[in-house]
Amino acid sequence: MYKKNISENENDMIFGRNPVIEALKSGSPIDVIYMEGNGGSLNLIRSLAKEKGIPVKDADSKKLSQLSGGASHQGVAAVGACGEYVQLEDILAVSAKKNTKPFIIICDEIEDPHNLGAIIRTAETSGADGIIIPKRRSAGLNATVFKTSAGAASYVPVARVPNLAAAIDKLKENGVWIYGTDISGSDYSETDFSGGCALVIGSEGFGMSRLIKEKCDFMIKLPMLGKINSLNASVAAGIFMYEVLRQRRSSKEG
pLDDT tens digits, residue range 30-71? Predict the structure, then answer.
């Protein structure tokens, strides 16, 4: 069974300029850096973070003091990732080991950690092989994600890639069909998921990005009968995932 290395400290925070610089240089798992201002060693932190694909978010002194619990932060705080990321090849290896068709979830800029945690939880229970997220404009494996996933984040491999479009191309090379989720698509219940498949779940406010939408082989949607024409990202993802599971179980039983 796949197992991540989980931090014992749910608030895995690093404060102060030198500690954050050393953490970046040593390759410590960092999810995001909050920073106030520029200049001097702060510019060095921004540069190192950019090299490693770690997002830097602007924050005021009040936000940084809140994160640090009142400790001296020197204008910077880094949030450590609570789990180790895997490579895309590791996720593809899961289905190869099980001798099943790949079943992968792609999160296109899901920024709410509660949504990402909920998606990971459903991915685990529905038998998905793993989850792919982009390095930028996405929630990472932080404490909130682990809590919301109810432990599932300990077992579902998560690959954090610098280029989501390139990752999709790699999946296609390995026989995986890409299913985008959008109101313009076909009814999900009339779609065949029996082959290798990857479901793309778009961001909470904007859906899939244009480039990722263009990369999809199929577009699928949920029927909307009320006055609201969209669902929470994690709720919609759960419905799609369980349709894949239903079809695959029916195929096996048949």
Answer: 888 999 988 889 999 999 999 988 899 999 989 888 887 777
Phi and psi (nearest 5°) for 235? -65, -50
| Closest to 166 measured CA to CA, from 142, 132, 194, 138 | 132
pLDDT digits (tens, 9 = 90+) for 85-110: 899 999 999 999 999 999 999 999 89
From CA 197, how far away is CA 185, in angstroms rounded? 16
CATH, domain range 13-80? 3.30.1330.30
Give the residue extent of every domain in the chain.
13-80, 88-253
Closest CA to 171 of 130, 122, 136, 120: 130
Instruction: Quote the mean pLDDT of the chain.
Output: 88
Right CATH number for 88-253 from 3.30.200.20, 3.40.140.10, 3.40.1280.10, 3.30.379.10?
A: 3.40.1280.10
Summarize the confidence of residues 154-173 as an average pLDDT: 94
First to last CA, the chain: 28
Q: Which residues contact 172 (CB under 8 A, 6 or more apart)?
A: 178, 217
Two tokens at 254? 């048949």
